[in-house]
Structure formats: C-alpha cells, structure tokens
Design goal:
By secondary structure, this protein is mainly β. It has one helix and four strands, in the order βββαβ. It has a four-stranded antiparallel sheet with strand order 1-3-2-4. 13% of the residues are buried.
C-alpha cells in the first residue's frame, strides 16, 4: 500500500476520481510551500514550489494496482512524462 496526495481531477466529484473511489480516503490535506500553476505546453495544472503558498488536496491509501493505474494516467515512466513522484509531508486537517 502507498499514499497519494491528489489536488486536481482525482479529487472527489472530479473527472478522474473513479480511479480512487475503491481506495481508502485518509482525509483532506494541505501541502505547504507549493502552489498550483500552469506550465507552458500543458493542458493541466501542476504543483510548483512556491514559498508561503499551499495546495489543498486529499490523501488516499492506494493499492499497488491502482498506483500503476495512476502512473499510466499521469505518464510516469514515459520519456516525455511530466509527472514526477516525490515524497512530501502533508498536513491532514480532518
């Protein structure tokens, strides 16, 4: 099992949430020191380091199978993929 912080279309009531709906919702969370921004050439928002900002999101405990599904959605392990997995500490607030 792994944990994932979501901030966009994977959140509840968003277009890609069905990829997470069978996983355990841990809680709402804040990622400090980052902001949601735009990157030229991307049609989706990304998280970028930015002092004194924070990103609101959700944390899920996910299965290995669903982690692989998320990796496919985000383009992990592709030469041109823009999604990079990193471990960050988030603050749960519920």
């Amino acid at each position: 099992m792994s944990y994932v912080f979501t901030y966009g279309t994977l959140m509840k009531n968003r277009s890609n949430h069905e990829l997470l709906e069978n996983n355990k919702f841990i809680g709402d969370a804040i990622l400090k020191g980052y902001a949601v921004g735009d990157v030229q050439g991307c049609n989706f928002p990304v998280i970028i380091p930015k002092e004194n900002y924070e990103v609101m999101g959700e944390v899920y405990e996910i299965s290995e199978k669903d982690e692989k599904r998320l990796d496919m959605l985000e383009g992990v392990n592709e030469d041109h993929g823009l999604y990079v997995k990193v471990q960050k500490e988030v603050q749960l607030f519920n």
